[in-house]
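Sequence in, structure out. Go.
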Amino acid sequence: MRSVAGLSVLLPVLRPNKAQQNRTGLGKGGSSDRIISRRRATFLNSNESIFLQRRQYCTPDGSAARPMPDRVSGHPTTTISSSPPGGPGSVAASVAAVPPATTAEDAALRLRKQANESAQDDSPLQEPELIFKKVWDTLQEKLGRENCNFPKEIIFLMGAPGAGKGTNTPFILRERGITAPPIVMSDLLTSPEAEEIKRKAGLVSDFVVVALLFEKLLEPIYQNGVIVDGFPRTPAQVGVIKLLHDQMKLLRKEFAETEHSHKFRRPVFRVTVLYVDEQLSVERQLARGLLVRHHNEEVRRTGWGKLMEERSTDFQPEAARQRYSIFANHYDTLKTLQKLFQFNIIPAGGTISDVEKAIKREFAYQSQYELGEETFDAIQKLPTASEITAHSRQRLIRRLDTYSVKNPVIFAGVIRVLNDEFYPIISAHSLSGECVVRSVNKIFNDPISIPMVLDILSERGFYVVADVKK
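Output:
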């Protein structure tokens, strides 16, 4: 019985580019109706498109895969030392015992009340271990250990003043497939004392910040992923992040064989910094102040629209520089997480389009960091598409040369069949861009003929799929 060889051939709609003409022999003297298609390369592994100058990947054990500069090259920043416990920029806090709560909502309300009251307390609570333990114990006691399931992916976002967090955050959400709104730390700090401290460009107590954040993170809407805008800012908060990650891994292991296992997925923590240099930051802050002031004047004059907040730092160059100095200090603190989590620096000084492209590069999918350890270990032995296609062109050339030397008769016969039977059908479908060619030619009884057809047509620029029936 003869073999029936079915070949699905994809053709181009557009004219071939110069690179394709050079590869296929088409040039000034080439035939204009020659059928040439674009080659397609699929890359599932995004490591090849990493923005190397701005990024460092680290393995789970803390070993750095690539170095990253302390500062983005060419952009000097001002660094200030962190405030000592009880000094400027900090508010000491302590925690009191929490009465029993009957529901999760009641527990959340009590935790918020406790955090607000702590802003007025004068007792020191600066060690991350103490902060974490007090907040965690409260949550666990009121909600139950099995209900302390935090989001699978948490992106801790920090941005220099004027870096455009409001503009660029939607790009990050889109690239990561996160649908929940960001958690903006400044919105969580709503007590009168916290508002006063914020107006003075200072910080509220670490306990208040952590207590409010943990409460928020446990809301169901954030379970698949969330951006946390403005955290961490102090060494204590950085320490709390490490402790939270360790605790999430511990819970994942603890509940692995229980009915709650689906709630404790592998935690993915990312730290992302939107960066601009000091000069551009100050310029953008002052420009924003002028725009806001003009907008508010129009609102007052016409009665239409809503007044926008006028920040005092947006009108005074020295105040704007002080805001940048605070950011620089936060960034120095943040760098201690480089060896633990994925750390992304996004250059935000260019156009919106430039920043969007940088975000796409930085947040491309990486299975090593996103799949569960067991899942990744199970599939990592299979090569990725990019690994398979990395040297496919060289291998194709070697195979074609081998056919010509070791199987010259059948090789010449396959070329004749392609020219006499296949190419007329392919040419007739040139406008549609796709055709299926079936043949009962006896040459396809030889098993090596099908690989030859695939390789020859692939070399000519077609996408080819074979379907052989006996």
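Check: The CA atoms of residues 5 and 228 lie 57 Å apart. The two ends are 7 Å apart (CA to CA).
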